[in-house]
Amino acid sequence: MAFTMHSHSGQFCPGHAKDQLEDVVKHAISIGYKTMGLTEHMPRTELEDLYPDELDTDPHASLASLIPRHEAYLLEAQRLQTKYASQINILIGFEGEWIRPECGPLIKTLSAPTCVDYFLGSIHHTGGIGIDFDREMYERAKAAAGGSEELLFQRYYDEQFDMLVALKPRVVGHFDLIRLLSEDPARDLRGWKEGKVWEKVVRNLEFVAKYGGWLECNTSALRKGLKEPYPARPVAEEWLSLGGKFTFSDDSHGVAQVATNYARGLDYLQSLGVTELWTFERATPHPGTPVDGKKATLIEKSVSIDEFRKDLKLE
């Protein structure tokens, strides 16, 4: 049973992704997905949090459009969930944007509607500065953290820990995204002289394992030129030693990226000794929510990697 727990569309992430959401869903069905988590980026609420492409025209208009766009996304997601219910189990979620602690209450509010099944706990910023958008912003974040990558990584994992404690997300997105634009994305974090970065990594993993969250194995790192998915092998090995469970994501930003590098990602997991992946099944009922206005029940579902490969139709 092939699936993704992390996806985007150009319809609701204009400038950041491509294609209509329905076209992304239809393509996912055509290549064998049986479950698809829709996780458009949550709206931001401060002008300072807009990305450069959102500042090119009218920043205030860009900011004002984000919440209505999110509301439109939830309506479209529910329509697609119903329309394609006989072909695919659509989960409705969003990607959390923990930029500062004040984002916590907003994420909780956005996760409250009965149609929302889950959210990804993600970090794309440190000190309020984006760390995966481009080199210029990454260097600004590094300077703000004290001028070294070691200090930047420490800040990243401290802010990630704040997010984890405040929200306890069921799925933690791209755990080590901070390595994407770093000087050495393949660096073994256990090798830094002071050892503080690795201590923070282990602390965060232990916390997620304790409350029962999942890490995603996210193959977008491969299409961005990294040699391993998120998380890298040392982190993945530590996670597995804690009894941690993996889900699987393409983090697609349009039709062309659905299931990109999935074969390599599955090979990577099997090289770690992983034999099963985890997803949710929306059970009460699918589609739609119970008539009493409560959220649908999510059942944790194990999928063997062999079964995942068998269902996936890759060229």
From TrEMBL:
GO annotation terms (biological process): L-histidine biosynthetic process
Positions of the PHP domain: 5-220
GO molecular function: histidinol-phosphatase activity
Keyword Transmembrane annotated: no
Pathway terms, separated by semicolons: Amino-acid biosynthesis; L-histidine biosynthesis; L-histidine from 5-phospho-alpha-D-ribose 1-diphosphate: step 8/9
Catalysed reaction equations from the record: L-histidinol phosphate + H2O = L-histidinol + phosphate
Pfam name, any one: PHP
NCBIfam families: hisJ_fam
Similarity section: Belongs to the PHP hydrolase family. HisK subfamily.
Descriptive protein name: Histidinol-phosphatase
Organism: Apodospora peruviana
